[in-house]
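HUMAN: Can I see a protein plus its fold?

ASSISTANT:
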Amino acid sequence: MKRGGNVYIMTKVHNEMLYTGVTYDLVKRVSEHKEKKYDKSLSATYHVDKLVYCENYLTIDDAIAEEK
């Protein structure tokens, strides 16, 4: 069974910048952004932690293609 995928867009609290990503587990990934799990990442450095858009795809490959 193939996993689905998600394309998501996050921003800062006042919408100053956008961050686009792809994941198969949106809830987990958004939580990682909010907790700044990867402290050297762009999203942690610039405090990008507000989800503003997501779209689901049947496969992660479809989601990656859409993000590109």
In short: The first strand starts at residue 5 and ends at 11. The chain is about 30% helix and 30% strand. The beta strands are 5-11, 18-23, 50-57. The chain has a mean pLDDT of 91.
